[in-house]
Amino acid sequence: MHHFITQKHIKEVNVYCHKIKSKSIINISHTLFSGQTFLWDIHHDMQPYYLSIIKSVPVIIKKISEYEFEIISTEKQIGGVPLSDFIQNYFTLDIDIKRAFPENFSQLYPKLWQLLMPYFSLRIIRQDPYETMISFMCAQGIGMQLIRRQVAMLRQTYGEKRSVSLHGKEIILHHFPSPERLAAADPTLLSRCTNNNRVRASNIILAAQGVAEGVIDLDALGNPALPLSELRNILSQNGGIGYKIADCIALFGLGRFDAFPIDTHVKQYLAEWFNSSTALRPLSPVNYLALDREARTVLNPELAGYAGHLLFHCWRREIKELRTF
Description:
- It is a single chain.
- The protein is about 40% helix and about 15% strand.
- The chain is of the alpha+beta class.
- The protein has a 5-stranded antiparallel β-sheet, covered by helices on one side.
- Helix 5 (about 130-140) packs antiparallel against helix 9 and helix 5 (about 130-140) runs antiparallel to helix 12 (about 245-255).
- The longest helix has 16 residues, at about 305-320.
- The radius of gyration is 20 Å and the shape is globular.
- Mean pLDDT is about 95; it is low at about 1-10.
């Protein structure tokens, strides 16, 4: 039996549980802690429970098996979509991950293919584009643990508090702050959530103002017919958003699985695994776009970003031996 108690309703409320089955193995931990989102928390109670708030709805996930997990929520729907349908779409269970790689990839790169195979259990998730934009604007140039702490501080400082009870234990969650809330923030106070970078804080305030006023129209930018280069250029017109963050917003927030974010780790694996001489050069805008083009000759262009994130996580864990995400 699962039940929630919330601050807003100081009484037990109805809880809806759905078991979600995947046709292939799904690793919830790798999915939620691979650098694509910083909005999930873990609560250990005999086994790990993963908690977040999605579209104002508290959500808890519990692993059942390699192919199945349970979703627990106070609502039957998220964003007007039945809970089970929303979560299946959220975890991109409609995507055949192996399609992200050309059919001959395993023959061309047999050792890499073997190394990569366990990571086909990682799914890219379809996130809110505004939350993705602000999260990655907080995340520039710092490690994942610090990013997670910074984004948590952002939610705790500016987001509405939500208290839920799981198995009788109170757990505090926070909504992601609305565009209007961040648009009115003081840059000095906000800089506590951006590694004390006031310029970054000011850019986040401007971006939030743009979303609140409709100047940054994320719905329009989500149009799949919009060329990726145009989408990247539009996003990059905003202070604090370069090509890499624009591609992260596109990939993780706008469902553009063709977007291929490039950072230091991606440069390294492009050089090591795919013999890219371009990857040995500084990551200037010109070289960024050159690497982007190169990646599309190796990966399925339509799912280059999906493949790229699997390679990114594999590189960090298997080659760099990193264990903190």
